[in-house]
Structure formats: structure tokens, C-alpha cells
Design a protein that fits this description.
Helix content is 20%, strand content 46%. It is α+β, with helices and mostly antiparallel strands and 652 residues long.
């Protein structure tokens, strides 16, 4: 019995001496031993600085100062992991059984670089290949033992930087990250929580992977993700694989979209009211490794508007977007809502002489994305007007937007064609439109403040304007077009009364048709062929409309077709002044000139007739033309000469 006690005593003393030696060994010696073992098992360099402290039971652990862990040979030069301090502990009893139960991994100010290239990840660790001189396989490796279970009780990274590199390009780079993760059992889900400082607050991420071993092996596995950020939150319930491809149900809810965009590095983006200052977007999302996102069965509530449809986006700079949407009744009436207001508070329209706005137009939104968006809607309310049922396509390409209408309903009629806004080298706007069934009064009142003309019209319009303000664009307009209006009314003067003895002011003029064509240059519209037909009259018109100055100078000449035995009486009307309140008066100068011409002709004709009568009496003949006078005189002289000769020769 004594020999057994002595043997046990020797073993205890020997084990104690070994443990004591390790505990008393200088830190640099321990670091060198650990580094050599890590190199032998992984082929990576482990560098430990400062003291290295070990614990053996019940947790086999290590605490170090600054540490770096090398990257894969094919990856970049930066280490895979670096930290100011590192603490690692595993369950010693589990390790004896062959299970790796990681009790803790604590890192302070770590930098973790995960790299993926050609399907290889730098987190995949394997021992370097061993070669033997005999070419035989060691007996110890002839049979491979099944690996034991690996679990993780706690992972904590404090003030970490996480970098993800894919095929040599940095895809993600997050700083000031605090992360904790837990995977207590092989069959348990891996749960991770993280937070990161961003402009305006903190982003918090809660993630759960129910089957971590399957995920780590590259199998597509379920994923639950909840992200909270300043201004909103994102939820995802679906599937994911190791390279980050995802497919599942996504929901994005924002209470302040601009604040949320700023949190993700998109500060300064102004979201118009009606397009999602507050949003609730859901749908079936698919994300692929090449940066493509597709959204199907989408329902998007943006402020008070509701969109349904589908969309595809490629993550790039700028993003490439393709979408087909149905908006129902779309309200963008506050699209250009200003933040301050004019401060007048009277509710009255601005004075006419204020003219067009000289505020600089911010067209930077044209560069936010490229792509094509097809939109159908029952109605679209925009500032100052409302479109009816419309089918529109918006194409965006390098700060140039083309809005195609096929068709759009506006002012109770239809528009076909396109409108273009180009901000590549300064702002320009243009269009080529064909219209039919337009309510002329609605159109002129909305677009130019002209309320006197009403009717149903059609026409074609081409225009181009250049400038950074509304005023500059209107003063630069060029183009051409034509207008046809059926039955209509001009308010403000009565043509029947004007063609009688009145002034023509007040009342209305009803016409049967109106046609005109025009050209524009430098913001001035010129028309020379206006023709308006009425029951008893016709009217011609010519003049200019200065679009930049918002004024008109136009001569309107009605003709009474049944007066003066059908020869017609005309009373020109001059329309001049600001187009919101022009002066409409008969042009008496033209009337007097026309009357004077008629009177002179009448006097000339009367005097000529008296001469014809007098000469006819003297010559005893009828004279109706000045050419007859010479012939009559010649004939009379011949007759008198003949009579004289007969008397001379004694004849009767």
C-alpha cells in the first residue's frame, strides 16, 4: 500500500511541478510556445505582446495584451484579427472528452477582417500539409477521429471594427461596433446582438441562425434579422447562405426616412412629402452576391400614398432601378412643400408683377439613380393640378429624366408624348406633346393665370427652355405648335355689342371654332394666323405673347359678314397688358383709317360719276367709264367735221 501512496505522491508532485513551471514561466516564453503551436495547427502567425496569463481548471484560459492573428496566404497583407487585449477560455472537462466548449472570447478594440475570394474564406483554418521522407502515412493518422462538438457560450467584441472584403474589394466596413454572440449547444440557434454608433444615434442588430453548423458548411439556412436605426427599423425572415445571399420576407418601417438614410451614410437626401418621409414597405426580397435586390409582391405605404408592384435594384453608384408600380390615387400636391413658408399669411395670390420665381432650382435629385419606372394611377395630384387616369414611364440616365406619357389625363383631356429634364451641363427642360380633348380654361388658368378663354382644344407642342431658375427658363423658351378649339367662349367683351354701337366691354363672345399656330423664340410667342369663326362674324388675329414678361400685345380683328351687303364691317380689338388682367379695347385708329378710306373712295366715285354725266350730256351720249370719254369726243368731232364739209359743198 505504501508503494501506491508513494506513486500517487510522485505524480501529484510531478503535475504540480509542471503546472508551477508553466505558471512561473515568463510571459514571452509562454507566448513563444503558444505561437509555435498555433503555427503548427493553422499555418498562421500568432503574435502576442505583453504578459500571457494562463488558467487551467475548470476553465483552460489565456489572457494576453496586444495580439494579432495572421491572414490566409492568398488574402491581403493585413491580419485577420488584431486586438489590444484578448481573453479566451474553454471548458477543460469538455476538452478532455474531445468537445470544444468555448466559454468566453473577449476582445478589446479588435479589428476583424473577413475575406472571401473564389469561394474561399480566410476564416477556414487547417493544419499545413506534412511531408515524410518515406512517403508513408504515419500510423497515428491512418484513422481519422470524428471531431468533437464545438460550442460557444459567449463572444464579446468591444469597440470593434468589422471589415468584409469580397474578391479584393471592401464590401462592408463598420467601426465602433459592440458585438456579443452565443451558441451554447450544437442543436441550439446562434444568437447575436450588435450595436454600432452612426450619425444621429445607434444601429442595433439582433440576429438568429437556427442551424449554425449547416450555415458554416455553406448550406442555405433560415435567418431572423431585426435592425433598429435612428428613424426606422428593418425586419427580415427568410433564408441566407455563407456568402450573404438572402431570400425572404422583408419589412422596412421608417418614422423619419431622412434621418434613417443619414444613419447609413446618405445624409442630405431630401425626401419629398408623399414619397416616404414616413414609410412602411414590405415584400418578398431576394439578394444575390452580385449586388442585385429584387422585391416582389411589394406593398409600400409612403406617407398617405399606397404603391403596389415589383422592383429590381442593382447596388452601384448610382443605383440602377427597374420598377413597375400601381399607385391608385397618388397625392403629390405637397411635393415641393417648402420648410418655411412665405411669411405673408394673407392667403392671397402673389402680385402679378412678381413674375416667375428667381429661386435656383435644385435638380440634383436627377442624379440619385439610373433606371426605368413604369407607373399607372387612377389620379395624380401635383402642385397646382391633378392628372386623371395615367400611364407614365420615367427613365433616368446620368442626370437626365424622360417622362413618357402613354397617355396621361390632364385638364379633362389626354396627353401623349414626352417631357425631358436634363441636368448634365446645366438645367434644361423640353418636350414634344400631342393633346386632345383639353379643357382650355383649366389649362390656361393653371399654367398662365389666363381665365378669359374657354373651350375644348387639341394641338401639338414642342418647347425647349434653359436656365437654373423658373424665370430664366421662361425667358429662354423656344419651339412651335398649333391649337384647335371647337365651340368656346371669350369672356370680357361682347363681339355683337362691339360690332353694333357699344364699347364691347363686359359680356361674352361665343365662337364656333378657333385655330392658330405659333413659334417661340427667347420666351416670346408669335402668332400671325389666328382664325375664329362665329355665327355672324369671323375674326383674324396676330400679335405676341411675352412668356418671360407675362404680357400680351395682340390685335384681334372681327368682321361682320352680313353687313354692308356682305362686304363686311371690321372693328379691330387690341388686347394689351399683363396677361392676368389685359386691356381689351376697340382699336379706333384702325376703324377711323378704314372709314376714311371708304369715304375717300365714295367721294372719288361720286365726283367721277358727275363728270361722266356732264360729258355725256354735252356729247349726247352715255358715259360709264373714263375710257369712253376719249372715244365719245373723237366720234363727236368726226360727226361735226362731216357736217361742216357737207355744208361747204352745198349738201344737206
Amino acid at each position: 500500500m505504501k508503494w501506491l501512496i508513494r506513486i500517487l505522491f510522485i505524480l501529484v508532485v510531478a503535475f504540480g511541478l509542471v503546472i508551477g513551471a508553466l505558471l512561473l514561466m515568463p510571459g514571452d516564453k509562454l507566448a513563444a510556445i503558444l505561437s509555435e503551436q498555433v503555427r503548427a495547427q493553422t499555418g498562421r502567425e500568432l503574435t502576442l505582446s505583453g504578459d500571457v496569463n494562463l488558467s487551467f481548471w475548470p476553465i483552460l484560459g489565456m489572457e494576453t495584451g496586444p495580439v494579432t492573428f495572421g491572414n490566409a496566404s492568398w488574402a491581403g497583407p493585413d491580419p485577420m484579427l488584431s486586438a489590444e487585449s484578448l481573453s479566451v477560455g474553454v471548458d477543460a472537462a469538455g476538452l478532455i472528452k474531445g468537445d470544444l466548449r468555448i466559454k468566453r472570447v473577449f476582445a478589446n478594440n479588435p479589428v476583424l477582417r473577413l475575406e472571401l475570394s473564389d469561394g474561399r474564406g480566410n476564416w477556414e483554418l487547417s493544419a499545413p500539409a506534412q511531408s515524410t521522407s518515406t512517403g508513408t502515412t504515419p500510423a497515428s493518422s491512418a484513422t481519422a477521429e470524428a471531431p468533437g462538438a464545438v460550442t460557444l457560450d459567449g463572444l464579446e467584441l468591444t469597440n470593434a471594427r468589422l471589415v468584409y472584403v469580397e474578391n479584393g474589394a471592401v464590401a462592408l466596413d463598420f467601426a465602433q461596433v459592440n458585438l456579443s454572440a452565443s451558441w451554447p449547444d450544437v442543436t441550439a440557434p446562434m444568437v447575436m446582438e450588435a450595436d454600432m454608433a452612426v450619425p444621429g444615434g445607434t444601429v442595433q442588430v439582433d440576429l438568429k441562425i437556427p442551424d449554425l453548423p449547416a450555415f458554416a458548411s455553406g448550406t442555405v439556412t433560415p435567418l431572423d434579422l431585426a435592425l433598429k436605426a435612428p428613424g426606422g427599423e428593418i425586419g427580415f425572415d427568410g433564408r441566407v447562405n455563407l456568402i450573404g445571399e438572402m431570400d425572404g420576407k422583408v419589412q422596412i418601417i421608417t418614422k423619419d426616412t431622412e434621418k434613417m438614410l443619414a444613419a447609413f451614410g446618405q445624409s442630405g437626401v431630401a425626401v419629398p412629402f408623399g414619397l416616404g418621409r414616413a414609410a412602411d414597405v414590405s415584400g418578398q426580397m431576394t439578394y444575390t452576391r452580385d449586388g442585385r435586390i429584387s422585391l416582389r409582391d411589394m406593398v409600400a405605404k409612403l406617407d398617405a400614398n399606397m404603391f403596389t408592384g415589383e422592383a429590381d435594384m442593382t447596388i452601384a453608384d448610382p443605383p440602377q432601378i427597374t420598377a413597375r408600380l400601381d399607385a391608385g390615387n397618388l397625392d403629390l400636391s405637397n411635393f415641393a412643400e417648402s420648410e418655411g413658408g412665405s411669411g405673408q399669411g394673407s392667403g392671397q395670390a402673389p402680385a402679378v408683377d412678381e413674375g416667375w420665381s428667381k429661386d435656383r432650382i435644385d435638380a440634383s435629385a436627377l442624379s440619385l439613380a439610373n433606371g426605368k419606372i413604369r407607373l399607372t394611377a387612377k389620379s395624380i395630384a401635383v402642385p397646382g393640378m391633378t392628372l386623371g387616369p395615367s400611364d407614365l414611364t420615367l427613365s433616368l440616365d446620368r442626370s437626365r429624366a424622360v417622362l413618357q406619357m402613354h397617355p396621361a389625363t390632364l385638364f379633362s383631356g389626354q396627353l401623349n408624348g414626352q417631357v425631358v429634364a436634363n441636368n448634365r451641363n446645366g438645367l434644361s427642360v423640353g418636350g414634344n406633346l400631342q393633346v386632345s380633348g383639353i379643357d382650355v380654361q383649366q389649362a390656361l388658368t393653371t399654367l398662365g393665370g389666363i381665365e378669359r378663354l374657354s373651350g375644348t382644344g387639341a394641338g401639338a407642342f414642342e418647347f425647349l427652355g434653359v436656365g437654373q431658375t423658373e424665370d430664366q427658363i421662361m425667358r429662354s423658351l423656344s419651339g412651335k405648335g398649333n391649337v384647335e378649339i371647337g365651340n368656346g367662349v371669350i369672356s370680357g367683351f361682347d363681339l355683337d355689342r362691339l360690332m353694333g354701337r357699344g364699347t364691347g366691354s363686359g359680356g361674352t363672345t361665343v365662337f364656333n371654332s378657333l385655330t392658330a399656330s405659333y413659334v417661340m423664340d427667347s420666351g416670346v410667342l408669335t402668332n400671325n394666323d389666328l382664325l375664329m369663326t362665329l355665327k355672324n362674324f369671323r375674326a383674324d388675329g396676330e400679335g405676341i405673347v411675352d412668356l418671360g414678361a407675362r404680357s400680351i400685345d395682340y390685335l384681334f380683328t372681327p368682321v361682320a359678314l352680313r353687313a354692308n351687303s356682305g362686304a363686311g364691317i371690321s372693328v379691330p380689338v387690341r388686347i394689351v397688358g399683363p396677361w392676368s388682367d389685359p386691356s381689351i379695347k376697340p382699336d379706333l385708329t384702325k376703324v377711323i383709317e378704314a372709314a376714311a378710306d371708304v369715304k375717300v373712295k365714295e367721294l372719288e366715285d361720286d365726283a367721277k360719276q358727275k363728270v361722266f354725266d356732264k360729258v355725256g350730256d354735252e356729247l349726247n351720249t352715255t358715259i360709264t367709264d373714263s375710257d369712253q370719254i376719249e372715244d365719245a369726243v373723237k366720234n363727236k368731232l368726226e360727226e361735226e367735221a362731216k357736217k361742216g364739209l357737207l355744208k361747204l359743198f352745198g349738201a344737206d
